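just leaving the lab so this will be short. what follows is a protein written twice so to speak, once as letters and once as structure tokens for the fold. can you read through it and tell me how you think this chain folds. anything you notice is useful, everything is just below:
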Amino acid sequence: MTKEKAQARREHLQKMRAEQQRKQRRAALLMWGTGGLIIVVLVGVVGFYLVRQAQQTSLDAVSSVKYDAGQHVWKQVTYKETPPVGGEHNNYWQQCAVYDKPIHSEHAVHSLEHGAVWITYRPDLPKAQVDKLKEIASSTGQQDYMLVSPFPNLPAPVMVASWGHSLKLTNPEDPKLGAFIKRYQNGPDTPEPGATCGGENAITTTADQAPLPPEPTGQQQPTETLSPSPSQSQQ
């Protein structure tokens, strides 16, 4: 092989190696670029989901007022809020449960004082939405501190209340409902944490089944006791 041919062969090999290296660099750049793009997209999707989730469960629209606890009365009470979230209330509290008819607010407010959450809905709410509301109420939070009942003339299709707090909702499937329950049920504003929302002194009737109880003539008064075994909040 002549000297010129050997030199040409070396130059050809160098060009082939250089071309191969360029291809490898392009492949590496493409791989890293694609991987980086995927990471950016994933970060964006996760960020969007977290922001959207935070917006959906935001409780910024919660209305809050302050009331002194322990204002037990035997009379019918005219409340400022609909549904009421505090103030004077009957000596007897409402048994925490799901009711298909309206209950006396005076009993329900006493249950709020004990840490209950009260979900109310318009009586003309479609049955499918009422069923969904009951499903959510039976699977979120502490069931022995959950009240559900229709309420005439609500300012929204669905409302949820605790002592001192309320939130308007248009849809039972609104994520804010579960967020409210988890934050305010037996929350830090509960005047009598640990007090039972049931027991022998709890009212189990609806407003059409029994009037408010009259003031007793003797010394007997309902006894407020601690709940023997409050259930744990469900996620």
Q: What stands out?
A: Strands lie at 63-64, 72-73, 89-90, 117-121, 146-150, 158-162, 165-169. Residues 228-235 have pLDDT under 50 and may be disordered.
